[in-house]
Design goal:
heterodimer; A: 304 residues; mainly alpha; two-stranded antiparallel sheet; globular; B: mainly alpha; Four Helix Bundle (Hemerythrin (Met), subunit A)
Chain lengths: 304, 148
Amino acid sequence: MGRRATRLLSGLVLLTVVGAGAFWWLTKPAPWDATHWEGLGEPDLADGERVFWAGGCTSCHAAPGAKDDARLVLAGGRPLKSPFGTFYPPNISPDETAGTGSWTLAEFGNAMTRGVGKNGEHLYPSFPYGSYARMTVKDINDLWGYMRTLPKSANVAPPHDLPFPYNIRLALGGWKLLYLTDAPRVDVNAADAKLARGQYLVEGPGHCGECHTPRNALGGFEADRWLAGAPNPEGEGRIPDITPGSKSIGSWSASDIVSYLETGFTPDFDSVGGSMVEVQKNMAKLPASEREAIAAYLKALPPS
Amino acid sequence: MKIRAFMLAAVLAGLGVTAVTAADEPQAVRQQLMKKVGQATGALSGIAKGEKPYDAEIVKASLSTISETVKMFPSHFPAGSETGMETEASPKIWQNMDDFEAKAAKLGSDADKFLAQLPSDQAGVGAALGVLGKDCGSCHESYRLKKE
């Protein structure tokens, strides 16, 4: 090998190392500074329960087929199919070994809003931290307090079943760099308290966009089609458009939406179906004012 | 002449058959049945919400419609009716026919239970509707696909 070739090769190696280093530095897990989670005081447990239902934690983290009070046992293990493979939501019950019993508020908060696990690893965005990123520290603190009052489970959920390249956690840093944001998804009149509340609930804890907004090939939201409907990630059928431009629900009034979220009945007395059944059960547990705020926000969205 | 008459008859018969089948296809029949359940549910909801006055006859008729309709509902899913005519039926119905039938039967028996002890006021109708609505949702959760 000539001297030039050697120099070229070592240059390439150096470039690769620097490039990889830069990628790592740009995309490494980024928890908040410890101070972010300090001084929040005692959690308000009643408020934490409200956040719990708004966030729909139990829809994914309860054991498969769990009903009624069993939904409060966040044992994990229910398969969540997606175009990227099958995810198995973990046990997040307060069990010290199998669950989150040994976690701190900061560890929980960084998982919720930055997608960083207890061991500093990137979490998959199947856990909707891309939406929870918008949640206030108060809501996180209250939710954490409430979750610690729930029953423990010793269940250990199976690991995610993902084909290459989706099984490479490091790559998630790239996904976050491209798509993780806590900015509002659409412009609504933020001076209107009801609208602002609805925006927070839908875009943040409610994580409605995770299913109702279409995604590109890398799994990022198609930002200009916010809540405009998408293929069902779990298989056949579609998740409907819920903007005022929707063929199915665009004609619903705000009170139709409120009534649907409360009772599960559409204005023509069809009923809620598919994965929305779980969501509606959760929404029915919220105060009426929260459902009214959600409806106001949906009616104020730009039509698809 | 004879041939012409025969052909005309054949064409007319053909048209007739198509006209009958369109409405008779299982997909169309079950859509009609679900609409009937929806209308009955709507009548109950009007009372539950206080938009309409309580009327024992309407409550009874609505519950009977739901009970009778949903009991015959699962017999309209023969092989070959899995797709077409904008059906929202999930393929899972044919994979889990027993469970599908059990879910329909649950709504039927819950409706019968309320018929045997008719809700006597607005609040009673609301409570009944809560139970029936859960039955609707638990079947639609697994077995109905939205297409749009």
